[in-house]
């Protein structure tokens, strides 16, 4: 009997709760105070401050299933394993347990709890880095050998090196494989030599499931765990964050050793069911079943399988994005909601289905028991999707006619941009249509035109800015504290209805989005600036307290109360009983300890973002 997605999620959370882990809720798909990325793409991402030393209100052992979205995988959707939206099962040790506990636990969960055949599991480990004096991870190898031996499996360790070397060497009779730094080292900055001083990192150990399919030689002469032929699928990765880059470009042992495990829920479920097609797990299969019922097409038909997969993935991802506040638009995150929906519509048409709304109910039904914001916002989701579908269909037929006109030869970047700006064609739709005709699109030319048209838009998942709060630099921390002062000042000047709708912080500036229906007057901006600077000069203490969520709410702490908070929260107060509390907000930190370190606050610009949302750009001088 096949395991369902929800069963695997519940078993995982229960397994680690029994081992002293506190359940934390999934963060929003929109990162808070992290300008380095548009979306939350892993369970680790919202926990960076705690991995860097902040104390977490739920303790040192944490577990959750994190909603994740990776825009860079849009073009890969259509095979049997890539999805843009997925859930990442995660467990963390913040300076508590380490390798000796982590590897046995995750192995036990996979083999005993959800009954994955251990003979089908293979693992990779860090081969060491001589030039950076980083040793081979022999500790993990010894642990893995012992774990496999207890299952009656003699696990040989072999050296692979790079992926290219792997395709030449093959499996070599191994079950434990040493890979180079590029594959089995984790840091936010990549390989050791690219890490800045003060950045943490460490070796990791990945787990692969073997579906036993025949190797495809177009991916290399021989197969190995990191081969892309489809035989192996990565289902989990334990990161051992144990080093920190020092000022001499070497590495010291990290003062707080952490464990960060991430495992794709869909992939683990597929492995548990021994089916390499993730679209056959129940949460995606219900969408495909609905599509089959509404068309005369079958999922197993090679002619239509890609379209079934694209619709199922893109509709699921778009619904989760909309539920987290990402409405379709031509800029920033909203561009991806639009791109997903419009590409799904095109493939719905290929399937002969004229109403994409039929996919909404099965998706919400599959997930609402765990993510109740989907059911709470179901009507809003339906309205937004219907409006976007109607808007696109108005221009779709004329856009296809325009495409036919210009596609007698290769398509220039300018023409591709016209299809986007005038007819609403996402670039990947133009690329797909061109591929079907065997012609080429000048993608670089399109990118240039797109960026010139709208600086804020992004057509990939590349990092938007360097630095930012995620690096916990001194200036970023100052700007983070200044957003709290700004929010309180805005509420004082224009009213208590003002709520923060988002922020984006780098070490050079801050951006603050807030709810308000009209442009701020020059007088209001001047008054806001004055209040913030007065509070800076007053030298107010910044104090962190941990308390139950209900107590924080009763005390008047500002926050968007809902799914994203644990039952115990951190509250940062600016001011105290002596000076008076100026600001009290739910926040993970970090912050300065006194406002007198911030400097002079200056508003550079105030503008509209969307209906009912304004944006302030400001600096500290």
Note down, in words, how this protein is organized:
It is a single chain. This protein is of the alpha+beta class and 621 residues long. It folds into 3 domains: 5-278, BirA Bifunctional Protein, domain 2 (2-Layer Sandwich), CATH 3.30.930; 281-372 and 382-453, no CATH class; 469-620, Threonyl-trna Synthetase, Chain A, domain 2 (Threonyl-tRNA Synthetase, Chain A, domain 2, 2-Layer Sandwich), CATH 3.30.980. Helix content is 38%, strand content 20%. The protein has 19 helices and 17 strands. The chain has helices at residues 5-17, 48-51, 99-113, 138-150, 163-169, 181-184, 265-272, 282-293, 302-323, 332-350, 360-367, 372-376, 378-406, 413-423, 427-437, 443-453, 474-494, 522-537, 549-555, and strands at 22-23, 61-69, 85-94, 121-126, 157-161, 176-179, 185-186, 200-210, 232-245, 251-264, 500-505, 510-515, 542-548, 568-574, 583-586, 601-610, 613-620. The strands form 3 sheets. Strands 1, 2, 3, 4, 5, 6, 7, 8, 9 and 10 form a 10-stranded mixed beta sheet that branches. It has a 4-stranded antiparallel beta sheet with strand order 11-12-17-16, covered by helices on one side. It has a 3-stranded antiparallel beta sheet with strand order 13-14-15. A hairpin with an 8-residue loop joins strand 14 and strand 15 (583-586). The longest helix is centred in the middle third of the chain and has 29 residues, at 378-406.
As for the CATH topology of the largest domain, it is BirA Bifunctional Protein, domain 2
**Average predicted confidence as pLDDT:** 89
Give the low-pLDDT segments: 460-468
Would you state the CATH class of the largest domain?
Alpha Beta
Q: How would you sum up the global shape?
A: globular
Number of helices: 19
Strand content: 15-25%
The CATH superfamily of the largest domain is Bira Bifunctional Protein, Domain 2
Largest sheet: 10 strands, mixed
Structural class: alpha+beta
- By DSSP, the count of extended strands is 17
Q: Per CATH, which architecture of the largest domain?
A: 2-Layer Sandwich
Residue share in helices?
25-40%
Number of domains: 3
Distance from first to last alpha carbon? 64 Å
